[in-house]
Amino acid sequence: MEVETNKIKVTIDNITIDVAPGTSILNAARQIGGDVTPPAMCYYSKLEGSGGKCRTCLVEVAAGSTADPRPMPKLVASCRTTVMDGMVVKNMTSEKVPEARAGVVEFLLLNHPLDCPICDQAGECHLQDLGYDHGKEGTRYQFTRRTFKKEDIGPYIQLHMTRCILCYRCTYVADQLTNKRVHGIVDRGDHAAISTYISKAIDNDFSGNMIDVCPVGALTDKTFRFKNRVWFTKPVDAHRNCTTPGCCGKATLWLRGEEVFRVTARKDEWGEVQSYDGKPGWICNTCRFETKKTESWTIEGVTTISRHSVIGANKYNTTLVKPNETVKKVMKGVEPKLLMDIHSVSGVNNPNVHLSDINGPAHSDDFKK
Ligand code: SF4
Ligand code: FES
Q1: Cβ–Cβ < 8 Å for 83, 19
Q2: Could you tell me which of 265, 40, 80 has the C-alpha nearest to residue 173?
Q3: Ligand 2: which of 57, 82, 89 to mutate, judged by most atoms within 8 Å of the beta carbon?
Q4: Is the dihedral of CA 168, 169, 173, 176 positive or negative?
Q5: Tell me: the pLDDT tens digits for 194-210?
Q6: Among 103, 167, 294, 363, which has the highest number of CB atoms less than 10 A from its own CB?
Q7: Which element (helix H / strand E) includes 108?
Q8: Which of 260, 258, 259, 257 has the alpha carbon at shortest distance from 359?
């Protein structure tokens, strides 16, 4: 008979679950899922040693454990704090956490440029989401922001250090996935920067995974840079028989029509690389950068994208379930006064052209037909 490991009880935002001893608060919250889960900019479950750098995952511990129910005096980093039996944690329900997180966002944005309109990561950037959820409108920072020259890390990756938040994830990829690490963090404090030692290029088969783990647009795919906005591309799950040892061969192809604009590893709901049979599904550079023809892949189907993501916008008409209720019914008999047909009020669009029939963004020419 299988021996049950002793589970311990933890309550997060009034939801109690049993988890294995040694589980971090963040991972316990991920087991509950949804909004209870704190954001994480540096922790990455597939990278050993990650976490503890960015402080976005701060939570309040209202009771330390059953044995010692005193609250913890300060907010703690949930990715680095293990749960105790009877621990009571507050994330969404805390009054202190939103303010602290807003402070963390302010610090992360001290030097980070607000160049989302031209950044390749826009639409899938964790800092952008964090800024929307917890950021403040203005900045109190009055000094010159630090800037760096763009640097090529090997033939396929460009480092734009100005956008880096020093989460260290890419250095863990370099350490744990590639056999000859030639890049890391140099200097200290405000001068700290990701760089290659003596300008050495990274020519390892798995270096491209650094792009996937980067939470911001600091490391970008040179074969995709400025080619398209991610929300104009259509992601599909695909696989191929890759012969590179260690490559899972399962990827997401980002298509525009039949053209493959970029290839990435498949991501899970936390924005991390998906696991297969308990192993992270890293992909090799051959799959990522050199296999950009649909015929080289077996396409499995459209990638499921969170309905909150801008990437899924306007692409999945066939899978949309229209609610049966009318607005009037949902609003308990109250009819909205401002619901209007955009065609009839704009006077610009041709009402015979249906917006959802336009492939990609609408231009004025589309309405002249
Ligand atoms: S380049 Fe990206 S992954 Fe690397 S430390 Fe900076 S933000 Fe993190
Ligand atoms: S995710 Fe916990 S400190 Fe960064």
Answers
A1: yes
A2: 265
A3: 57
A4: positive
A5: 776 544 556 678 889 99
A6: 167
A7: helix 96-108
A8: 257
